[in-house]
Amino acid sequence: MKNNYWRSSLTFLALLMVPLAVFAEGPQHGGSINVSLYHEVVTCDPHVSASYVDKQILQNIYNTLIGYDNDLNIIPELAESWDTPDPVTYIFHLRKGVKFHDGTDLDAEAVKWNIDRVLDPKTKSRGRGEINAIKSVEVVDSHTVKMNLSYPFSPLLAGLTDRAGFIISPTAFEKMGADKFASNPVGSGPFEFMEWKRDDHLTLKRFEGYWEKGLPYLDRIVFKPIPDQAVKLTNLKSGALDIIDDVMPRDVESVKKDKKLVLLEVPSYGVNALRLNCTKPPFNNKALRQAVAYAIDRESIWKHIFYASGVVGHGPIAPVSWAYSKEAFRYTYDPKKAKEKLIEGGKPNGFKFTMITKISALDVQVAQAMQAQLKAVGIDVNIVQAEGARHFKVMLKKTYEGNYGLWSGYPEPDTNLYRQHHPKGTAKWTGYADARVAELLDKSRASLDVKKRKEYYAKALDILIKDAPQVWVYYFPRRNGLNAKVKNYMVSPDGKMRLKEVWLSK
C-alpha cells in the first residue's frame, strides 16, 4: 500500500475502515523454518566442499568477498569496493566493523589467510581453480587487500562469489583444526551454526552481531536431509516443512492448486547428465561413449519424465548462459549410429556397465529409461542406487563406470567448463582431458573481451560434446515449493537459498 492509495480523499476514507492489522503485515522478526535438502550435508568447510547441497548451508553461515544479487549481477559484499589499476592487479576495500561469529574481526589479515588457504595445494580446495591466477595476496592496511595476478583473468570476481570467496574465521579454524571446524563452522554471515545431528537435521540461529542492520529476520533455520521427493511434498503440505528444495514435475499442478502453498520456478544453469568414466574401460574408448550418446532418447525423457518442463540437454552450458552455443555439435537419438559406434569401438555385440544414481524417485526413473534405451542397441546397464554422500564419493574417487546426477551450474561459464574439463580443473570427475579444449579454455580465461570468450567457448563445446565424456540429458529449472506464510523468498537460477531477508507472516 504505497503512495497511489493516497491520491484521493475517497480512497483515504476507505483506508480508515481497514483493520490496522492489514498495515502491520510486513517484514517481521522471529520464527523458525524447516527446509529440506535432497541429501545430507557433506562438510561445512567451504574451501574443501564439493557438494551442491553444502552450499545451502555455506550461503547462510558465511559471507563471500564478492556477492551476487537475486538477478546474479556481481555486487559488493565483504569487499565494499575494488579497483583495478591494471589488468593484473585488484585492490579490494573491505567493509569495516564486520565480526565473525566468534567475535573476532574480519579484516585484511583474515582475508589474506583465507585466500592463501584456498590457493595452497595442500588444502585441496575445490575453489582453487577459480582463482588460481592469483600470484600473491598483500595486506595494504587493516581493511585493504591487494591481489596480484599472473595474467589477466576474466573470471576472478565470479570466482570470489563462491567457495573460493567464502571467508571463515582463521582464529576458530586454528583453534579447532580442519576436521572439527568442518562440523562446527564459524563465519560472519547472517546465521551462525547451532547444531548438527547427521542424517536428521542441521540448525542455524540468527547472528545478533550481523553487519547488515536489521537482518536476518528469522530466529532459526532447520535443514533436514530428505531424499524422497514424495515424503518432502507430504511434509510441505502438512506444514512439517516450510521450504522444499525441489518439486517433482508431476507434482507441479498439485502444488499450484494448494492455496496454502507457493510454487517458484526459474530456468537454471544446471544440467542432469550421465557421466562416463574416461579413465578406464569401457569408457576410455571414445566410440563407446559416442554409442551411448546416440542411444539416449533425450526428447522422450524430457516429455514423459520431466513433463516437458525445462529444456532438453545437449551440453554443459545451459541456454540461460551468455556462453550457450547453438552452433556446437549435439547428439540426436539415432540407434543406427549407436550400433555403428559399437562396431567402431570393437564391441559389435554391445557391452555391459554399471550406472550409479542417487536414491531419488526421479533420478531412478531417468536411469531406468536410459537403461531400456541402451538395451535396445545391445548395451546392458546395471543400476545401483546410492545415498547422496556415497554417490558423490564414488564420483570423486572415479570408482564408477557410469554416474547419473546433476551439475548445479554457475553464472560464470568458466566455472562450469574449466572445473570439469580442464586438466587442472578441480572437478575432473570423468577424467576427460583434451589439449585443444584446454587451450581454448585457457584463452577464454585470459581474455577480457566477452565476444572473444564466447567464440573460444563455442569451439571448445563443439569438441567436448563430440567426445562425449558425459551424456547431457536435461537443463533443469530451479523449482521450490513453500508454505504461503514464508515471505520474501526468491528462487535464483544458481539454486542458492539466500535466507537472510526471508520472514514469516503471522
Give a concise summary.
With 506 residues, this protein is an alpha+beta fold. Helix content is 31%, strand content 22%.
Characterise the protein shown here:
The chain folds into 3 domains: 1-40 and 188-266 and 478-506, 3-Layer(aba) Sandwich (D-Maltodextrin-Binding Protein, domain 2); 63-167, Alpha-Beta Complex (Dipeptide-binding Protein, domain 1); 271-475, Dipeptide-binding Protein, Domain 3 (Dipeptide-binding Protein, domain 3), CATH 3.10.105. Helices cover 31% and strands 22% of the residues. The protein is built from 18 helices and 21 strands. β8 and β9 form a beta hairpin.
What is the percentage of strand-forming residues?
Answer: 15-25%
What kind of oligomer do you see? single chain
Give the rounded overall mean pLDDT.
93
> What do we call the CATH topology of the largest domain?
Dipeptide-binding Protein, domain 3
Question: Would you identify the CATH H-level superfamily of the largest domain?
Answer: Dipeptide-binding Protein, Domain 3
Helix percentage: 25-40%
Uncertain residue ranges? 1-23
The shape is: globular
Count of individual helical segments: 18
User: How would you sum up the major sheet?
Assistant: 6 strands, mixed
Rg, nearest Å: 24 Å
Q: How many separate structural domains?
A: 3
Number of strands: 21
Distance linking N and C termini: 18 Å
> How are strands sequenced across the largest beta sheet?
14-18-13-17-15-16
Q: Any guess at the CATH architecture of the largest domain?
A: Roll
Give the structural class. alpha+beta
CATH class of the largest domain: Alpha Beta
